[in-house]
Specification:
The chain has a five-stranded mixed sheet, sandwiched between helices. The protein is built from seven helices and five strands. The longest helix is centred in the last third of the chain and has 23 residues. The protein is elongated and about 75 Å long. The protein has 194 residues and is an alpha+beta fold. Helix content is 46%, strand content 20%. It folds into two domains: 144 residues, Aminopeptidase (3-Layer(aba) Sandwich), CATH 3.40.630.30; 36 residues.
Length: 194
């Protein structure tokens, strides 16, 4: 039995229902982390799809197998990182739907990233992966992706509170302080006993 061929093409407005469904699937995979991100409305996704199609440095792609939408990816061209001169292609939201995994969809979408890198003269392809998605981490590692940095996120309201300084330590802070004190006492007792 031959493997069905994967076709990769630019997303069009008719892909909107599939894009929204895949975005929801991505949010479900993200778990607790993604629940804090705002949900996307159909109009909002359509507006972003239009702005991506008008931006020469961005491409929203879908992968299909036998006419069925199997995956998606957003590719952008920008600097490797702020203050770097080197150009890179950034892979965002690469997602392969259940039922289409292990059929070459992810490889085909990343091949499109390589093609874009060749077009724009980029020497690097970057992506971000949620830390708890082990299988996704392994997928990228098998293809040669290595860790570059850890990105962290915080809601503005929480950061504002933390920067202002909370009036009193939290219960977790108290428990941690007690544990540290107990460890120091136990270590001192053990030294005296020896």
């Amino acid at each position: 039995m031959t493997r069905p061929s994967v076709a990769v093409r630019d997303a069009v407005p008719d892909d909107l229902p599939d894009l929204l469904a895949m975005w929801d699937e991505l949010c479900d995979l993200g778990g607790r982390v993604e629940r804090t991100t705002p949900s996307s409305s159909e109009d909002g996704v359509l507006d972003r799809l239009r702005s991506v199609s008008d931006d020469p440095d961005s491409r929203m792609l879908v992968a299909t197998i036998d006419g069925d939408t199997a995956g998606m990816v957003l590719l952008t061209r920008s600097s490797y990182a702020p203050l770097f001169d080197q150009t890179a292609v950034h892979v965002h939201y690469l997602h392969v739907r259940d039922g289409f995994r292990r059929r070459g969809v992810g490889h085909a979408l990343l091949a499109a990233a390589v093609a874009m890198a060749d077009e724009v003269g980029a020497e690097q392809v970057l992506t971000s992966v949620l830390p708890h998605l082990r299988e996704t981490q392994r997928f990228y590692a098998r293809l040669g992706f290595g860790p570059v940095m850890v990105r962290r996120s915080v809601p503005v309201s929480m950061l504002r509170r933390r920067l202002a300084g909370e009036a009193r330590p939290s219960q977790a802070d108290n428990v941690l302080a007690r544990r540290r004190t107990l460890r120091r006492v136990r270590a001192a007792v053990a030294r005296v006993s020896d």
